[in-house]
Amino acid sequence: MRRFELLVLLLVAPVLPAQRISYETGPQVRTFISDVDGSAQPYALYVPPDFDPDKKYPLVLSLHGAYSNHRLNLKRVFGKGSRLPLTDSSAGGFPKFPNVPYLVASPLARGTMGYQGIPEKDVYDVLEEVKRQFPVDEDRIYLTGESIGGGGALWLGLTRPDIWAAVAAVCPANPEGVEELAPNALNLPIHLFHGAADPAVPVETSRAWQKRLLENGAKVEYVEYPNVRHNAWDLAYKDASIFDWFGQHRRQRYPDHVRFVTRRHKYNSAYWIRVDALQGADLASVDASIPENNSVRIDTKHVYGLTLRLAGHPRISANRPLRITVDGTSLRVPARGDISLVHTAKGWRVARLPEDRNTKRPGSEGPIGEALNARHIYVYGTADSPDEEVLAARRAVAKDAAEWSTPSFKASVSFRVLADKDVTEEDLRTSNLILFGTRETNSLIARFASRFPMSLHAGAADYGLVFVAPVDGRLVVVNSGRPWWTGADNRRPVALRYFQIPNRPAFVAATFPDYVVFKGSLDNIVAEGYFERDWTLPKEQAEKLKATGAIQVR
Hints:
Helix content is 20%, strand content 29%. It is an alpha/beta fold. It has three domains: 26-246, Alpha/Beta hydrolase fold, catalytic domain (Rossmann fold); 257-350; 368-553, no CATH class. The strands form five sheets. Strands 1-2-4-3-5-6-7-8 form an eight-stranded mixed sheet, sandwiched between helices. It has a seven-stranded mixed sheet with strand order 20-19-21-24-23-25-26. Strand 17 (339-344) and strand 18 (347-350) form a beta hairpin. The longest helix has 16 residues, at 118-133. It is globular. Residues 6-13, 15-20 and 84-91 have low confidence and may be disordered.
């Protein structure tokens, strides 16, 4: 057929209506593929029976408690959960749900591992998965959870407060470090629920949260149920009433007043404030307000660089200059686009931080456990051509580190264990590395040794050294000498406050800062702490480690 005839046929052909995607409605279970370990991770999902793909829907993310799961949690948030003990993880089939005009997603999040690290990433992966598949109203995304899921809701809500329209936490079992984030709730409505007779998570937890949030100017509501134990969700979620409360709230995109505190570049923004660089490991804070049109006042602590993202704010006009007062420094700048500020010895100035891959930044910072929160490989050394007995012992150490589960605790993760000679260039581009040995025994440690802040002398057999460092956009953990979990049984175990996680090597690593040096076992810590912004040791710590004769400092 000639080209002209084909064109005529195309022009006169009937126009067929576009096919509409068919959506399964009601409660269901779906999966997504995690890029952490390549596993298929399940989540429960509710789609309204009268779902219309041409409308935008509010979305609720609901987090389950300890020894529970995504299916049971989805039933509970609709008021259909059983009153069985906390240890019950059965869910069975789904009953008939109330017809509410919400999308609701409940991640498994690896089971009972809390909601920091890999489970936290799973929650955000589920959020993105639902947003890809359904029309979600970005200003009506809500977060709730029960028990450790309630603590997880507070953690996710307060580390990234500008994502959520409101948070409901039921008998929350708080993870480590969440209480200091209370100032971040200034523009985030929070509803707390707790049973007064709760034997698992004391009611004082939520009473203290209410007081803490009120002191920080947050909008907080609290309901306490007399004589109710650790099943407060039966009343908090009764008749799916939580959706009525969520419906009262929409996300504030441009509040006039923002408070934000953080210790991590990973959690670096809230609303129109972005923290670009932190000073040290202390809690950094930004208190920013717009007292009048085109005027911004900012007070900071432990912040080296920040950016104002004011485009679209109703009180900021791009046609007028912007007056900024930051820690007493007065600046006058055009109110167009993002405005970056850097702290200098003479005060703040308008400037962008230089691109420097050798400084801490999002995706390239500690602590040690952060390297284990993403795709990673455990690598043992073969560079010195060890005999079979030595090789087997090295492989066994790496395999022990890679095993997160115990007979009584199942962690739904799986990671590779490789010899250094079997790690490919593709692995180096896509995975963090957990390296065991020294430059003499592990070829990858030798390859990157010049980039590491310190190393263990080959003869220091009784020492253990573990640290994290960046290499080519990935994180590398080096463990030389004794395994980092030597003597961990006597170290404070990883805890979800009220629910214990076993002292497997990965969970021990989650308790570490950027580096740890010990002699003999963790009962005898020589030094531990955080690297400076440029990944060097603080001067006092460097001198202390040099004095041991076991550590070489760059």
